[in-house]
Multiphosphoryl transfer protein (Teichococcus rhizosphaerae), 319 residues
Amino acid sequence: RAEAARRAAFRPAVTQDGHRVEVAANVRGPEEAAEAVAAGAEGSGLVRSEFLFDDRAEPPSEEEQFGLYRRLAEGFGGLPVVLRTLDAGGDKPLRFVNHPAEANPFLGLRGLRLSLAEPALFRAQIRAALRAARHGDIRVMLPMVDGLADLRAARDLIEKERLSLATPPVEVGIMVEVPSAAVMADQLAREADFFSIGTNDLTQYALAVDRLHPTLGARSDALDPAVLRLIQMTVQAAHARGRWVGVCGNMAADPMAAPILVGLGVDELSVSIPNVAALKAQIRALSMARAEAVAREALNCATAAEVRALPALRALGGA
Ligand code: PEP
Ligand code: MG
């Protein structure tokens, strides 16, 4: 029994009608790589590199980062590893960066904005990632991209470092988690190699509800049709340019959300390690035709509650 379950976890997630969805794991560091692979993850769709920077008086050196990213690349044994550059600021302040006080840190210097404001910090991380990419399939993902200007600035810096290191090109993608990025996805898809939708922040910013709010939690549901429409725009824009799209927010692990995301054409879902096997099993039981039909129904609902009450979705989501 345990052996059969283990073998099933390693099989790809292919729907009844032959549509493959990649299932990857969100990890925080190299110690989780072996566990993710053993759970059946087909790579990592999100490495939260903040683990290296949290609670430190000094930033980690390029050398220290290189060692960790190399272990990550090797731990995944050549499977794709999407390394997200430092996503600090907002709810995740850094001790060694002198942040100006901000009245609204979630609307302030966070994510890629912070990296571009601290180029020495960003350069060290990029150089470590580029060097580690020689040891596996490392891809670089930029968090909190709000538009093309910052994407271009980041890509320029990455290309300069790559030329100085003489390392091979790596894919450079973006998180789509700011509504402006979803709206401008057609433009961004020209210059980003892939998208990964961060539904935690995308929901927060689209619905104007703090993701950590103590009492408004029930209003911030990623199944809100407003969020689903932003996801649909993002997927359509990416596919029109031949780019792949993942979802790495918590939504990907919600059994009620998976059929909709698959039906909207999302290519990859990245979830925490304990959710990998169940998500693969759920996808294998779906048909793409039914998932597309339920996604269309969901896009036409008025509220998240209506989406969650759809009989066709409840049947596919196991409710
Ligand atoms: C997200 O915003 O959905 C996401 C995956 O990033 P984080 O939760 O780290 O902000
Ligand atoms: Mg986020």
